[in-house]
Amino acid sequence: MTRREPYAARIGDHTDEQSFTKWLAGEQSLDNLDSPDPYHDEFERTVGIELWNLKPEVKYDGEYGGYYADIVARGYDGTQFVDVVIEAQFDRKKETALNHLGKLLHYGNLADADVLIWLTDAELDSRIYETVAWLAPQTTNLDLQVVETNVRTDAGDISTLEFSRVVPGHKGSIRRRIDTSPTSATLLGTTHRRLLRRCV
Hints:
This protein is α/β, with parallel strands linked by helices.
């Protein structure tokens, strides 16, 4: 589990889960962040999957009043095409964490997903991480991950957004960081990749 520096902020200090996932999916803008494209690319590298067709707020179980998966997407993990479900949580309450984990598993079943990603904005109870780490290798043909977000601010504005995959752990510590002012070369490469995805 990662340890935050005292001055580090949280993305949840600046936006809510629904707005953030809609922004990450390219469906909504955020005042504190620019285009999601470079962040989307960093997220892909963190989870090890190229993603496209990101659909936010996908509704399931209408007979129970409706549940909404934060993001459902299609992807490629380097060897095969996969269906992905992403569930976001921006607080560290144990009750909320158990609720989100249950929803992630439920949505994964309904979507017949190959990859489940729990996107958190805070270090959760270590026992919850241990539960996911215990569960992940016991699932057959299912990639279960926990990815933390972290931000740093400058004069109240977000200056850096990071993604860190914490479960399952990589060898060494992997933390992705990008500046909020992407270069034109980065944007050009991103645009090229977006055009290629439309052909898939």
